[in-house]
Amino acid sequence: MPDTLKTMEPMHAMIRSGEPVLLCDSGDLADGGAGVPFEVVYLTESCHAFAVRYQGTVYAYLNRCTHVPMELDYQPNQFFDLTGHWLICATHGALYAPQTGQCRLGPCRGGLVKIEVSEADGQVHWHTSDKLQPEKPL
Questions:
Q1: Model pTM score
Q2: What is the spatial distance between Cα 3 and Cα 57, in angstroms, rounded to a whole number?
Q3: Cβ contact 6:100 at 8 Å
Q4: CB 126 within 8 A of CB 38
Q5: Does residue 104 surpass a pLDDT of 80?
Q6: Half-sphere exposure of 34 toward its Cβ, with a 13 Å CA cutoff?
Q7: What is the CATH number of domain 15-134?
């Protein structure tokens, strides 16, 4: 085997599961307000994701409706319905619980793909897993 092939590394090396990746400052997320978008690699596919704050807690999900894999936001970074209590798919009208991502009403199959997050010292981080990796190496 040629030496060049021996030393080649995968184009996207896996980061250890559970590694924190800085997402945003805590102040960037207001209860029931605009979300913060970010990019991830889910399985092997580049995907859009988002984080929102609901009742004081930050939650994050892949930005993909479970009915048809389309992005949820009806305007950039707007994921909540008019009440500020449900995540809504602008295309299908499916409603998801912000705390769990589970579908509560409308055409959907199961729940949104949840991304683990943590918040400390004024910063929000999302955490890698065997299925979720940063789009760009850390």
A1: 0.86
A2: 51
A3: no
A4: yes
A5: yes
A6: 8
A7: 2.102.10.10
